[in-house]
Amino acid sequence: MLSFQPAVFGRQAAPAFARVDEIVQAGIAAKAAPGAVVLIGRGDQTIYEKAYGTRATVPSTEPMTLDTVFDLASLTKVVATTTAVMTLVEQGRVRLNDPVASLVPGFDRYGKAGITVRHLLTHVSGLRPDVDLHPWTGYDAAMALAIDEVPTAAPGEQFVYSDINFFLLGDIVSRVTGESLDKYLTRVVFGPLGLRDTGFLPAKTLLPRIAPTERCAEQDAWPCKRPDAAPLRGVVHDPTARRMGGVAGHAGLFSTAQDLQRFARMLINGGELDGVRILSPATVARMITPVTLPANAGTRGLGWDIDTSFSSNRGDLFPIGSYGHTGFTGTSLWIDPASKSYVIFLSSRLHPDGVGDVGVLRSRIATVAAAVIGGGVPVSTNLRVNPAGTPSSPKPQAPSPSVLSGIDVLARDGFAKLKGKRVGLITNHTGVARDGKSTIDLLHTAPGVQLVALFAPEHGIRGVLDADVPAERDQKTGLTIHSLYGETRRPTAAMLAGIDTLVIDLQDIGARFYTYPATTGYVLEEAAKRKIAVMVLDRPNPVNGWQIEGPNQSEPIREFIAYFPMPVRHGLTLGELARVFNAEKKLNADLTVIPVENWRRDYWYDETGLAWTNPSPNMRNLNQAALYPGIGAIEYSNVSVGRGTDQPFEQFGAPWIDG
């Protein structure tokens, strides 16, 4: 077997950025992505640049290099389409308040006459996230589907992140300029800026440097689940853009970290780089001016994200006023004009089988970068409903003690309660301490503690599976990973042999039909039978601990999603649920809960200061967690709740629903 050492270059501010190294290497080990390129800079200076891991793992292994070309996915929206539109705005050829129907003939049908260019740029058009992916092909077919769209809300009333918005904007650029979007951008933006490796439909000469994505066939939507297919390489992963021929306003752009650095420097310099002006300073300022979204959905600029449920890649320290965007394939760009700094993270997290997840990775890297290079401190302006039922006013949040999850408390206390124990750990990728170290690693190296086995709940030890979880072996520790979501959902006698304490560290979501509480209940039952102690390392309820909503189930029809009679939104932490199960079901397990410290019951997760980690593949942000108790309740009917889209649990639909 060949092994490759990641490239290391001299422009690293060691030891200040040593933590970036640790974060990325841990992410690769956890299979968040096979490799990555990180570039951090301030102004014209590159202060950190490094390639990690592998560019490709199949059909053969290739090392990651700094000049690797990536499928940028939705970074296309800002690097390409927003920039192109704003060049036309500053030329007076397009106005932000122009009705889309004045630029795209026929678009006014079905009540869309009031949608403007500005509505498209800020994702408040009322259009759906994407067109239907029934078999169709061709650019014209996509435009026909967009023209036939029926809005789900009036323009300006609702924020819905939509690919339709941006392939419409790309079409507007083509109609106004008389050139295809790719040719216009090459002539007006990419060529003058010297972005030599940036564009749509990359040339065959670039193929050896392109990071392949998922194994997919032409008409496949994500996840493709084609183990016998070749990975896409030089072909856009996004299924809509792929069907449109590879050139679309929402996806399809390929680029490198070095090219994106030049683009970021251009924006920081007010639209000019090396004597070449792409945008006027006024245009750049207008593009990144914060726009408050309806229904308290956050803040965006024109095209750019500033502070929404999609902006986790800002990290915890870059201020509101900084801006950026992500791409579904595992890419990210964040820019802070105040400190003139930028963080570029590029990966191909979907390679080869569509199951990687770099959301937490991007966030942590941005936080470390901001701490080192001087990003500001964000100020919360969220409207919250407090326990008294009245909205709180937008105001800066006073400093409060750091929220410590159960593993943080256990580690702080020297793992005293586990000294001398042979431990089996039920956990997944959400089992992490505040500093980003995994509970697996902490217990494996804890003095006096013998970690002897791992147990994986639904979605697996890395939280990326939407199918039965196989038994496997942990690559880092060499420990067996027993599946609790396969042939059995309970730990068996054979699995528990030689264990005297079972430790549970899982992030629950606060809804009755999430499966981690049932896994906890089954573990308590089996442990009680065998006189094995159970310890729950508790974590906050992400949707707060005081609002209790929804009906109580009449009977446990499906025990794994209705383990115990309680309301849909129960308001308890997993540790509190364990105590309820143990007492009310008279399990008599030897149960210890290490509680969360400094958590208040009125806290939502984004007020804890803890990094968001997707508890399951389709639970990608707090907004989805808040909607899940309602939307998830209809999932077992003949209605789709958006799984497989960019916004699961934020939308629902069915062929028989007339929108």
Which key phrases capture this entry?
single chain, 659 residues, alpha+beta, Beta-lactamase, Rossmann fold, seven-stranded mixed β-sheet, six-stranded antiparallel β-sheet, 16 helices
Mean pLDDT: 88
Q: What portion of residues belong to β-strands?
A: 5-15%
**What is the helix content?**
10-25%
What is the CATH class of the largest domain? Alpha Beta
Give the CATH H-level superfamily of the largest domain: DD-peptidase/beta-lactamase superfamily
How is the CATH topology of the largest domain named? Beta-lactamase
Biggest sheet features: 7 strands, mixed
Query: Strands across the major sheet, in which order?
Result: 16-17-15-14-18-19-22
Number of strands: 22
Helix and strand layout, with pairings?
Layout: H1 18-29, E1 35-42, E2 45-56, E3 62-63, E4 70-71, H2 75-90, H3 117-121, H4 139-147, H5 163-177, H6 181-193, H7 239-243, E5 254-255, H8 257-268, E6 272-273, E7 276-277, H9 281-287, E8 291-292, E9 299-300, E10 305-307, E11 323-327, E12 331-336, E13 341-347, H10 359-373, H11 406-412, E14 422-427, H12 439-445, E15 450-456, E16 472-473, E17 480-483, H13 493-496, E18 501-505, H14 516-529, E19 533-537, E20 549-552, E21 567-569, H15 574-584, E22 591-594, H16 622-631
Parallel strand pairs: 14-15, 14-18, 15-17, 18-19, 19-22
Antiparallel strand pairs: 1-2, 1-13, 2-3, 4-5, 6-7, 8-9, 9-10, 11-12, 12-13, 16-17, 20-21
Helix pairs in contact: 1-10, 2-5, 2-6, 14-15
